[in-house]
Amino acid sequence: MAEEEPKKVTETVNNVSEPSPSLPAPAEKAVAAPQEKPVAPPPPASVEEKREDSKALVPIVAKEVEEEKKEGSINRDAVLARVETEKRMSLIKAWEEAEKCKVENKAEKKLSSIESWENNKKAAVEAELKKIEEQLEKKKAEYVELMKNKIAQIHKQAEEKRAMIEARRGEEVLKAEELAAKYRASGTAPKKLFGFM
């Protein structure tokens, strides 16, 4: 188990791209200590085992560095292509957002014009309705006054008829009184009694 831990430490250090196969295991462990939990120091290994471990790791590191150099131009081309693609995608996205914004603004403008048209038409209809209501109110007032005049005229005619009847009644009462006085004075009886004869 003690032999496996130095290998892990050197692999993590080598992955950080620090090719240092000549460093001893304790120095490598000190570098990796902040990343891993502190572990009890391994029992001292022989110098030959350390050399074998470092020799085994050196060719891997050298191969990785060589592969990185060979793949550097390929990676750069891939990275440049990816950057170009991302740039194109961001331009497309910006264009799409701008087009959507234009469409939204156009729709909002049309909706607001429709709303203002609707409000104008409603106001015109309401004004016409008020005008008609005012005309109706005026006609109603005229008809009410006309009817009141008719009622007053009917009342006046009724009063006149009542007055005529009262006058006629008074005249007839006077006539009857005069006839009664005449019959009394002459001592004769009237020809018609109570309208039975």
Automatic annotation (TrEMBL):
It holds the Pfam family Remorin_C. The keyword Hydrolase does not apply. Residues 1-10 have a biased composition (Basic and acidic residues). Residues 122-153 form a coiled coil. Residues 1-55 are annotated as: Disordered. Residues 30-83 form the Remorin N-terminal domain. It comes from the Eukaryota. Residues 17-38 have a biased composition (Low complexity). Residues 87-192 form the Remorin C-terminal domain. InterPro entries: Remorin_C, Remorin_N. This is Remorin C-terminal domain-containing protein. The lineage of its organism: Eukaryota, Viridiplantae, Streptophyta, Embryophyta, Tracheophyta.
